[in-house]
Amino acid sequence: MGCTFSGLNALYDSTNVGGHVWINENRFKIVRQLGEGGFAYVYLVKEAIPDSSAASPAGLANKVKDPSHLSDDGTYAMKKVLIQSNEQLELVREEIRVSSLFNHRNLLPLLDHAIISVKPTQQGSWNHEAYLLFPVHLDGTLLDNSKAMSAKNEIFSTSDVLQIFRQLCAGLQHMHSLEPPYAHNDVKPGNVLITRRKGESPLAILMDFGSARPARKQIRSRSEALQLQEWASEHCAAPFRAPELWDCPSHADIDERTDIWSLGCTLYAIMYGVSPFEYALGESGGSLQLAIANAQIKWPAGPKPLYPEALHQFVTWMLQPQATVRPRIDDIIYHVDKLILKFSQ
């Protein structure tokens, strides 16, 4: 018939809880919805292992290159994307391509994917659906954890702050060390998965490579500068966006240090739950862009005990408005390792 296994998803509403979804030759049961945003839905799924006597391949284990990415209990996270245009289709294909470039324990791996054609219905005008399969981390994002801890007046210890941050640095170092270097372009607490571990600092994994692109761009005209600003406004969260992506000069060399700015904002957020510039959104006449352009950081009076001043200085070092004097990821790692040594004694 020429019908792929994944194509069977289009024959019925496969993403009801209890339903099944095919991703290539492997079938997964929908356990529950984990989240949604825009045209994407994230589900907890469980692999339906085929009968070993059947002629079909023996599940996902035959496909995944790194066995450490396989789940002990067969559960995974599946992102379903509703695609309404050729532009959206190309963006999803680019996310899949870029995700396949990375192999690091602090970067979320794409285990499998499928894109299928569907007929538009009265309920929606999409013409393709994409299914992306990832390891699942049920403790949620750094943003989720920060909100939950804030509600209970809890904070991360200095040691946990540094260990979480060190892991994000390791993931970014992998991206920045590729040839050509890649920038994540949307580093923020909502894109960091956390897994709590008894007796250890949390495991931190950077996810969502939908905005990741080659980091180095030569801007040589006002038109190119405006194009970059427009792209950044759609792909980089405003409170974590580097100054050069807000107001790009007509002659500039953009590089992976846009991520360093976002990393500095994220370190602040690990400590205090928000970007260092979000205060401007709540001020009468306040301007987020102006606060970022001038690196106007406001430090909270709490918590008690206070975080060490060395961490504040570390954040300030990363949040330099001039990208050319901002440190690179190797510099950041050198200094965070010194801080870990200092505050673990």
UniProtKB/TrEMBL annotation:
GO terms for cellular component: cytoplasm. SMART domains: S_TKc. This is non-specific serine/threonine protein kinase. InterPro entries: Kinase-like_dom_sf, Prot_kinase_dom, Ser/Thr-specific_kinases, Ser/Thr_kinase_AS. Coiled coil: none annotated. Its EC number is 2.7.11.1. Keywords: ATP-binding, Kinase, Nucleotide-binding, Serine/threonine-protein kinase, Transferase. PANTHER family: SERINE/THREONINE-PROTEIN KINASE 16 (PTHR45998), SERINE_THREONINE-PROTEIN KINASE 16 (PTHR45998:SF2). The keyword Protein transport does not apply. It comes from the Eukaryota. It catalyses: L-seryl-[protein] + ATP = O-phospho-L-seryl-[protein] + ADP + H(+); L-threonyl-[protein] + ATP = O-phospho-L-threonyl-[protein] + ADP + H(+). It is an enzyme of class 2 (transferase). The keyword Ribonucleoprotein does not apply. Residues 28-340 form the Protein kinase domain. GO terms for molecular function: ATP binding; protein serine/threonine kinase activity.
